[in-house]
Amino acid sequence: MIDSFLRRHLDGPLDRCARALDRPAITPDRITAAGLVLGLGSALAAGLQFWWLALVLWIVSRIADGLDGPLARRRSTTGGAGGFFDITADFVVYGTTVVGVAVGASAAYDAPWWPFLLVLLAYYINGTAFLAFSSIAERTGRTIDDGRSLSFLGGLAEGAETIAVHCLWLLLPGISWQIAVIWAAVVAVSSTQRIIAGYRALS
């Protein structure tokens, strides 16, 4: 919901960071890989109930995810294999983090699993909608170019909200399953928005 606003304000700082990182040994794919490893580490730490460590790893992982794109644009290597790797890594990190929080909260607070399963279902539907739209929009010449590798449809739940909710889970693991119920509903609404908007855009 606020991704466009944040992108306008964060593009400058991220570009400056990318310029500082622009060295031969540092590539966009390596930054993506670092974000993936850090995200998986966050999920593992959450599963082991090291909540603060999980939070730090999660935040650093998402910072890395914000830097690979600007560096790729500096080198004119956006899209293609790098874009594929980036979105795949994001899906892996988001999914495993949900599982990690579910495992940790279940063990520490006897939290039920079903709210986290609802979140994963909502993520699945949401991801299907925007990936299908991006593929068909590319083929039919109706792409949405905002500098990213894929055509993204806006919605109630976007990247910034997802990062914030995952942080909230790690800050308040004792009520993470209640947060998950609300979040699953929000992502479901966002999925519906994307399905309707995508259908209309491609009609």
Tell me the number of helical segments per DSSP (H or I, 4 or more residues long).
Answer: 7
Instruction: Please mark out the parts with pLDDT under 50 across 5 or more consecutive residues, or reply none.
Output: none
Order of helices and strands, N to C?
HHHHHHH
Query: What is the terminal-to-terminal distance?
Result: 24 Å
Radius of gyration: 17 Å
Give the integer mean of the pLDDT values: 83
Class by helix and strand content?
Answer: mainly alpha
**Percentage of residues in DSSP E strands:** under 5%
How does the major sheet shape up? none
* Form type: flat
Helix content: over 70%
Give the tally of β-strands: 0
Keywords:
203 residues, mainly alpha
Task: Give a short overview.
With 203 residues, the protein is mostly helical. It has helices at 3-21, 28-47, 51-74, 80-109, 114-140, 159-171, 176-202. Helix 4 (80-109) runs antiparallel to helix 5 (114-140).
Structure commentary:
The protein has 203 residues and is an all-alpha fold. Helix content is 79%, strand content 0%. It has seven helices and no strands. The protein has helices at 3-21, 28-47, 51-74, 80-109, 114-140, 159-171, 176-202. Helix 2 (28-47) runs parallel beside helix 4 (80-109). The longest helix has 30 residues, at 80-109. The two termini are 24 Å apart.
Topology (SSEs and partners):
Layout: H1 3-21, H2 28-47, H3 51-74, H4 80-109, H5 114-140, H6 159-171, H7 176-202
Helix pairs in contact: 1-3, 2-3, 2-4, 3-4, 3-6, 4-5, 5-7, 6-7
